[in-house]
Amino acid sequence: MMHTYPFQRKVHVLCEIAGVSRSGYYQYCSEDARLHRQNQEQDDQKVKAIILKAYHYRGRTKGARQIKMTLELHYGVTYNLKRIRRVMQKYNIVCPIRKANPARRMAKATHEHRTCPNTLNRAFKQGIAGKVLFNRHHVFNVWEK
Q1: Structural domain count of the chain
Q2: Phi first, then psi: what are they for 68, rounded to 5°?
Q3: Domain range spanning residue 84?
């Protein structure tokens, strides 16, 4: 905006609107900062190429943690997990989420592994053998009738 429109002595107003300090704005516009961003972009491009190699290793896509392990084991490269995640997010490298286990979903739907009601109230020792019997879904008190 500063280069498009002829604002003179309005930097402080625009920085206030953007919520940026004036010194931060001038630091961002400096030549050193521009060169630093350019170098970082080149480094990220190199890291992206290596990450994509590990991402497609053996034809299966991987997440950040698996990429980190693949890089260390097969390519001898060590990158921080945060760096891998940052580059993946920057270049939109996404690992597909695996589908849920159909057997587990069916067990939840049919309540195959549900819990029993707490009829004993933790009084496990009744004093008489076989007084309380346990079925899969119910607790039976033999002596009550």
Answers
A1: 1
A2: -60, -45
A3: 11-90
